[in-house]
Design brief:
heterotrimer; A mainly alpha; B mainly alpha; C alpha/beta; A: mainly alpha; C: eight-stranded mixed β-sheet; eight-stranded mixed β-sheet; BP-dependent_transpt_permease (chain A)
């Protein structure tokens, strides 16, 4: 009868390619710079209060609005608080709220996307309409509306951003699931009488994880963006937190008078963090694309 | 084509209706007792009841919604609690101001973004491409108030080239107005640049790698002709839709920028209304923003259909 | 058939490729795709380059127009067109060369044309280089379209590409390529993806244009028969090098490289049936592009290979008359890989109750708004252990038929599917577990059919768990049994699908289909995504499993050779209608339906060419708006008159089991078809 396949080694070229791919990510300079900056801020968020030279909450009105010096590296703010200490500790709240919001939106968005993409038809149409309507409004405005209705608190911010980002992730997941749905392994599973739940979560989900990972990283950047913006307009993190957006909001009225250090360092902190997250996302994306 | 138009129009109406429900729910249902929300926890119960009666919020929710939406459709947006004036003129003035700011931002970013994307795509993998891509990636994610403050510091405070407030003196001509709007529009331009450039780049690369571009090159056409005639048109088609969807983000950015620059636009109006719990103004502002976005994406889809023969001319033989 | 081999005269060569090496940069590494390719095409010559996937044939084609993908690098050798080395030309010179001397046509014409530009404008562009006036360009465009036999050029020129059918699009591409009367035309799989009847037409056209335009041709294909039809010289490419070259008739009649021999032997040709014994197969699978090979590229799969072959690369041996082979053992006969003797006997057509009986099966998509009837009143039966071959071109509804049987789609009301005489529920969800188990499928593309996130153990194990009554303790034993039945070693159980070759993946898919001991297995083009050298082994496996397990197959394919080899009974579909059904030998021997006749004459074949052929004009009409009367009348070469347009013929019995849907009386069909149709008898 027909001839058996001869031995070929189980680790094929494609295996090496996968390893190559990982190595490639770590070889990309921009990815590494991004990762280093993110890790730096995570470190500050975790251990910041233990290493800063001053208590970030301690007023010292006699030393208010001092320019940067050897004593206060980044100067002091209106209430004489040490800006350097506040910038370091300021990572904490935003790096708690934004990742939590991202996790909520990723879980919710993935589930929604799987359901829309798998069932298609009426369910998809219905959810799509609501998602489209939600996406019609800028995140900041939806968040504003919800925060006015529910009252600002860190928990509300997490939930609101989690829910407003979920449709965006759902849309990405849905597109990937629709493509997977066309593949015959889904029909094969149906021909084994698998439940819809099994097909969605055991058969399809592992194959759409890479785009979800990229999307989640990108969303993390935007979650930080949104939390900072909401804090800036007073609907996000509340005083006396040394949060960056909040500090800028409290001090930007002074820049006309030349007290630039009260906002510039906080601004740079936000900018480096979001850019770093985006560079990491870009690194993962281009490794998956190749 | 006509079927496509009707379908698209129907979908827009459904979206708008859903949006109105959301705006209504967000501003009127979720806060629960509206009179209490406006007057605060220590107000007298009778005053709260009176206010609820005055605002009509003691009626059933559906009646309130029907009343609100039917008035809204004919342009009656109710009375502002904060300003004690009709909402409609407030919204109109704010809208005109925002439109000016948005227009300046768009006029700057659309050509820049597309050009950036094209240049990056034509130099794929080279330093120019990496530079544009990383710049776009970074610019797009930095919140507007951060870049805005840095720009104010540099151009307004240190160099003193541009005014740090966006509000121009009364009776200023268009040129002066643009001069005042330049600084506030740059943060918006930065955020949008990344998106537009990325889409344009992706579209270009896809078109450059396509079989039809190969056909054009192998026909012996000069590179310039290939790019102008075959690549650009197919490449930039998807970018049109992106530009439209970006209106939503642009308006979101307006809330921040108008606050930062003390500018009386729709974003500033929504922000003030939210801060002062001025629910009629908030509802009206939100629904207006949604309507503008819906119209913009409808317009983009139509334009896309007009430029795309597959949709315009319909199916095969 | 006696074409003289063309003696190459260097100065006059239309194309000379010398020692061409091409690498692709993949993730910072160079991967060599062509290892020193040499070939020459004399003026007016037609050279066919054949090879399976990944052998570098398309790379050779693109190198010949100086247009490699961005990551492709010519790292050695020359490509000389008209005495000029393409690898050294300045961009402007290269552009001029492409505008005037070399042109190319490739696969997938739908994507080769600019979707947002009218056909006429794209065609006229070809004349731009020579500064032709607009009106003249217009005239010449019309002339070009006429020369590729487009009846109404003005109308076609006003169209956008998506408004044309695939065959028309390819004609436009060919017209565009020939517009400036080039010296060299490169055709890279120009008919792959087109239906057989359309392919036949395009090939005829190419042959005729070759005579009209006196253009030299480099024809690239995976299909030996197509090359045999068009070319006078053939080169066989394997693993990035040429392994054999010669005049077409000589090379195919007297192949001198074991790979060529294997390729020719493994095709189910000459009316071979499964009862005639298993097919020849080439063992193993194609080499991975990364494999470092010291000796002969084919040594790993070769029955003649010895230590010399494995350690030193063989040179080209000149065998005279322009025939050369890159094999140390070119003078030795290649022994047959003797598989066991035939186990299969014709099941005969048992008159017992059929396992499966389909009656009045119809399917209309979107019945309310824009009804799209894809299948109408299909009636077939299948006996135990028997294979029903389902043949038809795109749009015939054959895949829909498979999905309806399996319950993945719901048929229109009034349709019945009976399993062992009991009606089956229309929807999969309503079928009993036993019914679901009884019918399984092997899909066309194993990459799509196997979940790439799961291990082989899990893929087959889960199927056993869900579909067979195997107790948990015995699942492992059953798993090993299935793996050995499809001849894949157990150590692959922990592998993921991507770690296996295409042939092995399809074996895993077959193992999964057999996990629940089905009674009927639907095979939906199970070998069409595979290379020819792997196909034979899969077909042998299917036949073996059938004879051991008495399973019935519904075998869907567009490849008549394969269908003929495997099937006991054949059903021919056209636009959702059953045109002919009957025992395989009767359907092939005729008299048959004119459409069956056209399908048979459309297949290019390596060995027998006869003058008498019928050709179909045009393409399969849209199912949205099917022709009135007999759906085939718009293309039928045997149309008798208005009756064909007005009245749909019934399915007329012409034998015990043989039926045809045609107005022509059977005697007359027989008379018409007996003229020059010797091919229906096995050679």
């Amino acid at each position: 009868m027909s001839i058996a396949e001869p031995a070929i080694s189980t680790a094929t070229a494609e295996d090496y390619e996968r390893r190559d791919r990982l190595r490639q990510v770590f070889r990309s300079g921009t990815f590494l710079v991004g990762l280093a900056i993110v890790l730096f801020w995570v470190f500050c968020a975790l251990f910041g209060s233990a290493i800063v030279p001053y208590d970030p909450y301690a007023d010292d009105l006699l030393n208010a609005l001092m320019p940067p010096s050897g004593e206060h590296w980044f100067g002091t703010d209106q209430l004489g608080r040490d800006v350097f200490s506040r910038v370091i500790v300021g990572a904490r709240d935003i790096l708690t709220i934004a990742p939590l919001a991202t996790i909520i939106s990723t879980i919710l968005g993935t589930a929604l996307g799987l359901i829309m993409g798998y069932f298609r038809g009426f369910i998809d149409e219905g959810i799509s309409r609501i998602v489209d309507a939600l996406l019609t409004l800028p995140t900041v405005i939806v968040a504003l509306l919800a925060l006015v209705a529910l009252g600002p608190s860190p928990g509300t911010v997490v939930v609101v951003i989690g829910f407003t980002f979920a449709p965006i992730i759902a849309r990405t997941v849905r597109a990937s699931v629709l493509a997977e749905r066309e593949l015959d392994y889904v029909s094969a599973a149906e021909l084994r009488r698998e439940s819809a739940f099994y097909i969605m979560f055991v058969e399809i989900l592992p194959n759409v994880l890479p785009p979800i990972l990229v999307e989640a990283t990108v969303r993390l950047g935007y979650a930080i963006f949104a939390v900072a913006s909401l804090s800036f307009i007073g609907f996000g993190i509340q005083p006396p937190s040394p949060d960056w957006g909040l500090s800028i909001s409290a001090n930007y009225g002074l820049i006309g008078a030349g007290y630039w250090w009260t906002v510039l360092f906080d601004g740079s902190a936000i900018a480096t963090l979001v850019v770093a997250v985006n560079l990491v996302a870009d690194g993962i994306q281009s490794a998956l694309d190749e | 084509m006509i079927a496509f138009l009707l379908k698209r129009l129907g979908l827009s109406l459904v979206t708008l209706w859903l949006l109105s429900v959301m705006a209504f729910a967000g501003a009127q249902v979720l806060p629960g007792n509206l009179g209490r929300a406006v007057l605060g926890p220590f107000a007298d119960q009778r005053a709260v009841d009176a206010l609820n009666h005055e605002m009509g919020t003691d009626r059933p929710v559906l009646v309130q919604y029907a009343d609100w939406i039917s008035r809204f459709v004919v342009g009656d947006m109710g009375q502002s609690y904060a300003y004690r004036t009709p909402v409609a003129p407030l919204v109109t003035t704010a809208l005109i101001n925002s439109a000016k700011l948005a227009l300046v931002a768009f006029l700057l970013v659309v050509p820049l973004g597309i050009l950036g994307g094209i240049v990056a795509a034509l130099n794929v993998g080279r330093p120019v491409d990496r530079g544009i891509t990383i710049f776009g990636l970074s610019a797009t994610i930095v919140p507007e108030f951060v870049s805005g403050i840095v720009l104010i510091l540099i151009f307004g405070v240190w160099l003193k080239w541009l005014p740090i407030s966006a509000t121009w003196p009364n009776g200023a001509g268009p040129v002066t107005q643009v001069y005042y709007l330049l600084l506030p529009s740059i943060p918006l331009v930065l955020v949008l640049f990344g998106y537009i450039a990325r889409m344009a780049r992706a579209g270009m690369i896809e078109a450059l790698d396509s079989d039809y571009t190969r056909t054009a090159i192998l026909k012996g056409l000069p590179r310039r002709t290939v790019i102008w005639r075959h690549v650009l048109r197919n490449a930039l088609l998807p970018t049109i839709s992106v530009i439209a969807t970006q209106t939503a983000y642009l308006i979101g950015g307006l809330v921040i920028i108008e606050t930062l620059f003390h500018y009386q636009g729709i974003g500033g109006l929504i922000f003030t209304a939210a801060s002062k719990k001025d629910f009629p103004t908030l509802q009206a502002g939100v629904l207006t923003v949604g309507a503008i976005f819906t119209l913009a994406s409808l317009g983009a889809d139509l334009l896309y259909a007009l430029l795309n023969p597959r949709i315009r001319v319909g199916g095969g033989e | 058939m006696n074409r003289p081999a063309i003696a190459p005269v260097a100065a006059l060569d239309a194309l000379a490729i010398e020692g061409l090496q091409v690498d692709y940069r993949v993730r910072g590494r160079l991967r060599r795709v062509l290892h020193g390719l040499d070939l020459r095409i004399g003026r007016g010559g037609a050279y066919g380059l054949v090879g399976e996937s990944g052998c570098g044939k398309s790379t050779a084609a693109f190198a010949a127009v100086g247009y490699l993908p961005r990551n492709g690098i010519v790292s050695g050798g020359r490509v000389v067109v008209e005495g000029r080395d393409l690898t050294e030309l300045a961009p402007a010179e290269l552009q001029q060369l492409r505008a005037t001397k070399v042109s190319m046509v490739y696969q997938d014409p739908g994507r080769a044309l600019n979707p947002s530009m009218k056909v006429g404008r794209q065609l006229a562009e070809a004349f731009e280089f020579s500064n032709v006036a607009k009106s003249e360009a217009h005239e010449r465009s019309i002339a070009m379209l006429k020369s590729v036999r487009i009846a109404d050029p003005l109308k076609v020129m006003q169209r956008y590409p998506h408004q044309l059918s695939g065959g028309m699009q390819q004609r436009v591409c060919i017209a565009m390529a020939l517009a400036n009367n080039p010296t060299l035309l490169i055709l890279d799989e120009p008919t792959t993806g087109l239906d057989v009847t359309v392919e036949a037409e395009v090939l005829d056209l190419i042959q005729q244009l070759r005579a009209d335009f006196q253009t030299s041709i480099l024809f690239i294909s995976h299909n030996l028969a197509v090359v045999a039809k068009v070319c006078d010289r053939v080169g066989v490419l394997y693993g990035g090098t040429l392994v054999e070259e010669g005049a077409t008739h000589d090379l195919f009649r007297n192949p001198r490289h074991p790979y060529t021999v294997g390729l020719l032997r493994c095709l189910p040709t000459r009316g071979r049936r499964k009862s005639d014994g298993p097919l020849e197969a080439i063992r193993g699978s194609l080499p991975s592009p990364d494999a470092a090979i010291a000796g002969c590229v084919f040594a790993e799969r070769c029955t003649l290979a010895d230590d010399t072959c494995r350690t030193s690369p063989p040179p080209f041996f000149d065998l005279g008359e322009g025939h050369s082979s890159c094999c140390f053992h070119h003078d030795r006969p290649v022994p047959r890989e003797t598989p066991a003797a035939a186990i299969i006997t014709d099941v005969g057509l048992q008159n017992a109750q059929p396992v499966l009986a389909v009656d009045n099966l119809s399917k209309t998509f979107n019945p309310k708004k824009h009804p799209l009837p894809v299948l109408r009143q299909i009636e077939v039966a299948l006996a135990r252990g028997e294979t029903l071959g389902l043949v038809g071109e795109s749009g015939s509804g054959k895949t829909t038929f498979a999905r309806l049987l399996l319950g993945l789609l719901e048929p229109d009301g009034g349709s019945t599917i009976k399993l062992d005489g009991k009606p089956l529920a229309a929807r999969l969800a309503d079928r009993s577990l036993d019914d679901v188990k009884s019918m399984q499928i092997i899909f066309q593309n194993p990459d799509s059919a196997l979940n790439r996130a799961h291990s082989i153990r899990r893929i087959i194990g889960r199927a056993i768990q869900r579909l067979s009554a195997t107790p948990a303790a015995a699942i492992l034993a059953k798993l090993h049994e299935l793996m050995s039945a499809v001849r894949v070693a157990d150590r692959y159980l922990s592998a993921r699908p991507r770690q296996l070759s295409g042939g092995m993946k399809q074996r895993i898919a077959i193992a999964r289909a057999f996990a629940g001991d089905p009674r009927i297995v639907v095979c939906d083009e199970p070998t069409s995504a595979l290379d020819v050298s792997v196909q034979a082994a899969i077909l042998n496996l299917l036949v073996d499993l059938q004879s051991r397990r008495q399973v019935s197959y519904i075998f869907i394919s567009h490849d008549l050779g394969v269908v003929r080899y495997l099937s006991d009974r054949i059903a021919v579909l056209y636009l959702g209608r059953l045109m002919e059904v009957g025992p395989a030998d009767q359907v092939f021997a005729g008299p048959h339906h004119p459409y069956t006749e056209a399908l048979l004459s459309a297949i290019p074949s390596i060995d027998d060419r006869e003058a008498q052929r019928i050709r179909l004009s045009g393409e399969v009409p849209s199912a949205v708006n099917p022709p009135t009367g007999c759906v085939f009348h718009t293309r039928c070469p045997r149309k008798i008159g208005p009756i064909c347009e007005l009245q749909e013929p019934g399915l007329a019995r012409i034998g015990a089991e043989h039926a045809i849907r045609c107005h022509l009386p059977i005697e007359q069909l027989g008379r018409l078809q007996s003229v020059g149709t010797a091919r229906s008898k096995p050679a």
